[in-house]
Amino acid sequence: MTALSLLTQQDARTRRDRLEVLTALTNGPEFDPVLRGGVLKIPPMHSVYPWSCTVIDCARPRWRRYAMCSVHAEQWQEAETRGASRAQFLRTAEPLPATEMPEAMMCRICPQRPAFSLQLVLCFRHRNRWLSHLKRHPGGGQAEFERWLADQPSLPGYGECRADVCDELAASPLGLCGAHERGYIRAGRPGGAKLPKNFFATYERGDRPVPVTCEDEVAFRAWCRAQLPVHRTGTVNLRGLRPLLRAELQWGMYVHGLQPVAVWHLTWVQSLADECQRRDVQSLAGLDASVFRRAYHQRMVQEIQQALRKIYFTPSETRDAGYIASRPSTSGCASRAAPATST
Ligand SMILES: [Zn+2]
Ligand SMILES: [Zn+2]
Ligand SMILES: [Zn+2]
């Protein structure tokens, strides 16, 4: 066996042991359950990672600054120049109804098809049907829309998006969600996956399966594998990450919440995960934080690394540091992991 292959084996074993430690910790009773799994759905008023506007009863998500939606942030800036206090403003501002849904919206007729028109809340097919109905019945208002809706049968869905990382539903027989389909077209259709022209009239209307042609299935699959998740308010998608890295980020988010000295916006967490996926990072341990361009990513990585150092001790170092004795809540996990690292 060469020295290099021995080192690679040791690295793999270290990663496996570390993943075991983190798995035990993140499955522990004190760990925040919303931080588990591949796609984290964070509640709007989460104690550490809140994302709803702080104006009481406002249903809109936070915008970049002031922990308020864009409308309230603008109003607050004006109120502040007039000398109002923040507490006063938050109490008296008029709450706003939601506009952008945090989840991908579904067609109001087809439960399995994403909405193409967010205004009409209709899938691509129903939106086109409604527009052609309007041409024949110009001036049709809400009542006409309701009448038309009642006559529309729902159409079957197209399954999950084929981009590996994505948890959204496909928007067309091509098998990609709206965002990934637009990305695929922008990228010049790698692999040449295509739908027949007028697939609805030729196939779907007669309940026949729509054939998707692909010049190079391998290239298409490679494109699907390389995609980053669609960003959604209140969601952190970690599906595209290596298992150890995913667990490190989850543990890092949890430990950050124990003493949050700085705010971690969910968009920062998602963009850090995206950067790691792009670079195919296996673990944050030992990584030079300066590989990340953004200062807030660097700070987050350093904070996670600090949290990891406490649990990535070797068993003897863990005992020497008194870590097992001083942290009863995690001692079960640390001691559980010890035999694995010592064998
Ligand atoms: Zn608001
Ligand atoms: Zn529909
Ligand atoms: Zn997708």
- The helix/strand order is HEHHHHHHHEHHHHHH
For the largest beta-sheet, the strand count, sense and barrel status come to: 2 strands, antiparallel
**What's the tally of helices?**
14
Binned strand content: under 5%
Task: Tell me the span between the first and last alpha carbons.
Answer: 20 Å
Return the average pLDDT rounded to an integer: 87
β-strand number: 2
Instruction: Indicate the percent of residues in helices.
Output: 40-55%
Give Rg in angstroms: 25 Å
Structure classification? mainly alpha
Overall spatial form: flat
In the sheet with the most strands, the strands line up as: 1-2
Question: Care to describe what's here?
Answer:
The protein is built from 14 helices and two strands; from the N terminus they run αβαααααααβαααααα. With 343 residues, the chain is mostly helical. It has helices at residues 3-26, 70-81, 86-92, 124-136, 142-150, 178-186, 199-202, 217-226, 243-258, 266-279, 295-309, 315-320, 323-326, 328-342, and strands at 39-41, 235-237. A two-stranded antiparallel sheet has the order 1-2. The chain starts with a helix and ends with a helix. The protein has four domains: 3-42 and 234-342, no CATH class; 53-97, no CATH class; 104-157, no CATH class; 161-231, no CATH class. The chain is 46% helix and 2% strand. The structure holds zinc ion (3 copies). The site of one zinc ion has 9 residues, from helix 6.
